[in-house]
């Protein structure tokens, strides 16, 4: 009996050992397959290669290995060539699935591969610029593609209605083939479609009403076909559409009035001399080509630019005709005024494919100061003509005169009602710019050498300084004998005005506020004397030259009497005491 029990235990142990070994072998096998493409999809790739005529895939290595036959590096010598199989290896168990195939510019002469349907995780298929023939296989109707491009091939027949079953599509491009017949209404089922290009085929008939369902559409290209009838009214349902190409599409009749519901359809915004930047919802396109004395630059299909003239201080060996403003700009949308294109004779923007109609052209100007001498204001004349469609719309346009016009408008032509105060060298006026910015304009007369010297001194000193307790200078303007300085506006005027000005201007200041004002003045002076890169002695500190903002913070102003302190060993160190 004991022997029988022993035999049973021995057999049970052997069985458990066998099961354990089997489990370990399976684990080892699964571990070996982790990170590799599943075999069914590898087999499908071999079938696809046969169907399209792809001969250089190396089936001896895993397609997800990034080996060069599966992923060919891009080259500037062949910009239209793309050979790439993209895998996603983040699935459970570490197995890989194919999610994208790019076979662009490969000279493939087969047919569209039916076996693509055996890649259930495929999202992106691009077979652009080959010699593939036939039509789109019906097997593709069951796929979950998001991006499909079979453009620039030799595909024929009608556009298959079963394309409407691939409702996951966001991008569809079948341009430059030989598709014929009408556009099937089933394409209206592609409610996630954002971009559809049917250009350069032999398509006929009217566009089906079902296309009105494509409410997410952003780009539609139908040019170079043989459509009939008018541009459909349902175009107004495409609220997000921002690109529409229908030239040589065969449409007739007037452009529907409701096409005006499209926004920014005929607008071009360019940041002259600068990079691409976004202001609000408007994208200003980059115009940062270095340029030259005589240059034509085809920036994009829709616009180009040309320049003429040599800038005297740009060496002939350099082709950088873009100026950079290195000062701090505090106006709104300052990105548009940081760079400028240098072109002393002419600057022309050529905008193509504009339909007939009236256009609004907005030009933005800003001064980038070139300090050619000690006056800090040697800018020369900036007077030119503005042409639109070869017609002069602005003759002898003068930036300086127009800028002064803006200041006059802001101050209501220096209305006495807007006067904030008056000093020995001029008056200060309150102004409001067109964008709502409140400013203070200091008006100086340059009849005396002293007034002229104060103006130049103020620009030279304060333009180089930035500190919370120094008043900010926004800019300057010269018109004839009129000198203007534009500052930030200080709501509570000057300390003198608050302490002993008109009764309605006086304020009751508690000791905490008085302390804060004194400390603010001290911090401003400490910055001027010790902390600034330029050591400056103000020489005219008094209550009228201490301005107060809305929170009663002190800011030092009026640097007309200031001078640089260049005597390193004779000045007194200024420090702010902790109170």
TrEMBL record:
Keyword annotations: ATP-binding, Glycoprotein, Kinase, Leucine-rich repeat, Membrane, Nucleotide-binding, Phosphoprotein, Receptor, Repeat, Serine/threonine-protein kinase, Signal, Transferase, Transmembrane, Transmembrane helix
Domain Protein kinase: 414-579
Coiled coil: none
Chief place where the protein resides: membrane
Domain of life: Eukaryota
Annotated positions binding ATP: 447
Record flagged with keyword Repeat: yes
Membrane disposition: Single-pass type I membrane protein
GO MF annotations, alphabetized: ATP binding; protein serine/threonine kinase activity
InterPro entries: Kinase-like_dom_sf, Leu-rich_rpt, LRR_dom_sf, LRR_Rcpt-Like_S/T_Kinase, Malectin_dom, Prot_kinase_dom, Protein_kinase_ATP_BS, Ser-Thr/Tyr_kinase_cat_dom
Localization annotation: Membrane
EC number: 2.7.11.1
SMART domains: S_TKc (SM00220)
Signal peptide: 1-27
Catalytic activity line of the entry: L-seryl-[protein] + ATP = O-phospho-L-seryl-[protein] + ADP + H(+); L-threonyl-[protein] + ATP = O-phospho-L-threonyl-[protein] + ADP + H(+)
GO cellular component term of the entry, any: membrane
Entries under SUPFAM superfamilies matching the protein: L domain-like (SSF52058), Protein kinase-like (PK-like) (SSF56112)
Identification of the protein by name: non-specific serine/threonine protein kinase
Source organism per UniProt: Salix viminalis
């Amino acid at each position: 009996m004991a022997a029988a029990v022993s035999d049973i235990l021995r057999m049970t142990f052997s069985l458990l050992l066998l099961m354990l070994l089997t489990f370990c072998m399976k684990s080892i096998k699964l571990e070996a397959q982790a990170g590799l493409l599943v075999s069914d999809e590898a087999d499908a790739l071999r079938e696809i290669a046969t169907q399209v005529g792809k001969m250089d895939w190396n089936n001896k290595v895993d397609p997800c290995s990034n080996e060069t036959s599966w992923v060919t590096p891009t080259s500037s010598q062949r910009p239209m060539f793309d050979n790439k199989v993209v895998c996603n290896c983040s699935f459970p168990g570490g197995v890989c699935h194919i999610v994208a195939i790019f076979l662009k510019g490969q000279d493939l002469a087969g047919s569209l591969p039916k076996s693509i349907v055996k890649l259930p995780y495929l999202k992106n298929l691009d077979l652009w610029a080959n010699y593939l023939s036939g039509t789109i296989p019906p097997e593709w109707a069951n796929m979950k593609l998001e991006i499909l491009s079979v453009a620039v091939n030799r595909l024929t027949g009608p556009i298959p209605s079963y394309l409407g079953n691939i409702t996951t599509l966001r991008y569809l491009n079948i341009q430059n083939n030989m598709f014929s017949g009408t556009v099937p209404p089933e394409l209206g089922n592609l409610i996630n479609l954002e971009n559809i290009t049917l250009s350069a085929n032999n398509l006929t008939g009217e566009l089906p009403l079902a296309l009105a369902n494509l409410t997410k559409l952003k780009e539609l290209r139908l040019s170079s076909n043989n459509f009939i009838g008018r541009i459909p009214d349902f175009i107004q349902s495409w609220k997000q559409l921002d690109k529409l190409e229908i030239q040589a599409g065969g449409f007739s009749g007037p452009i529907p009035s409701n096409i005006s519901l499209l926004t920014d359809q005929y607008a071009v915004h360019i940041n002259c001399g600068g990079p691409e930047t976004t202001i609000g919802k408007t994208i200003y396109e980059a115009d940062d080509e270095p340029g030259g004395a005589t240059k034509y630059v085809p920036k994009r299909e829709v616009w180009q630019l040309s320049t003429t003239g040599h800038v005297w201080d740009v060496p002939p060996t350099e082709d950088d005709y873009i100026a950079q403003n290195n000062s701090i700009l505090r106006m709104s949308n300052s990105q548009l005024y940081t760079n400028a294109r240098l072109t002393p004779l002419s600057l022309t923007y050529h905008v193509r494919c504009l339909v007939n109609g009236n256009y609004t052209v907005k030009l933005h100007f800003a001064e980038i100061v070139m300090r050619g001498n000690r006056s800090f204001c040697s800018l020369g004349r900036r007077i030119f003509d503005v042409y639109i469609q070869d017609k002069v719309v602005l003759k002898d346009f003068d930036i300086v005169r127009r800028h002064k016009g803006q200041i006059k408008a802001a101050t209501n032509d220096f209305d006495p009602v807007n006067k904030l105060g008056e000093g020995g060298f001029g008056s200060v006026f309150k102004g409001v710019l067109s964008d709502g910015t409140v400013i203070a304009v200091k008006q100086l007369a340059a009849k005396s050498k002293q007034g002229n010297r104060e103006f130049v001194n103020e620009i030279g000193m304060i333009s180089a300084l930035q500190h919370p307790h120094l008043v900010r200078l926004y800019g300057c303007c010269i018109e004839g004998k009129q000198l203007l300085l534009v500052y930030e506006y200080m709501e509570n005027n000057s300390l003198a005005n608050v302490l002993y000005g008109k009764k309605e201007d006086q304020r009751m200041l508690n000791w905490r506020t008085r302390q804060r004002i004194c400390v603010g003045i001290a911090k401003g002076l400490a910055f001027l004397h010790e902390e600034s890169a330029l050591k400056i002695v103000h020489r005219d500190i008094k209550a009228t030259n201490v301005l107060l903002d809305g929170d009663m913070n002190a800011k030092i102003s009026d640097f007309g009497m200031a001078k640089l302190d260049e005597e390193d060993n004779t000045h007194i160190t200024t420090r702010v005491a902790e109170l």
